[in-house]
Amino acid sequence: MRSKQWTLWMVLGIAAVLTIAHSVPAQGIKERMKERLPVIAELKQQGIVGENNRGYLDFVGSAKSHEALINQENQDRKTIYAHIAAQQNTSISVVEKNRAVQLVKRAAPGTYVQTPEGTWVQK
Length: 123
Prior knowledge:
alpha+beta
């Protein structure tokens, strides 16, 4: 039963993110995120950034390459999460945590992800 609920939340979350990316008014979030994706993928592959336990990108070590780009990505994610939270009548922290779980599951092997306890591990 719990597995079915989890699967349902995951499907709804992915659908919501895709829908929100299309519907957030004229901010171009989807386009900006697509443009940043190659750089983010490279930073993940190099082990510079990873997916934290709140659904955002974070620096794994002391290297802060492309810090402005990472901040922009996280701001766009936060905008989407806030929109989803408002639609689902829940808190942004619930959306962040649910999205973090999705991002960990989708992360490529070797990508750094943060456990719920805050420890960085390679997937």
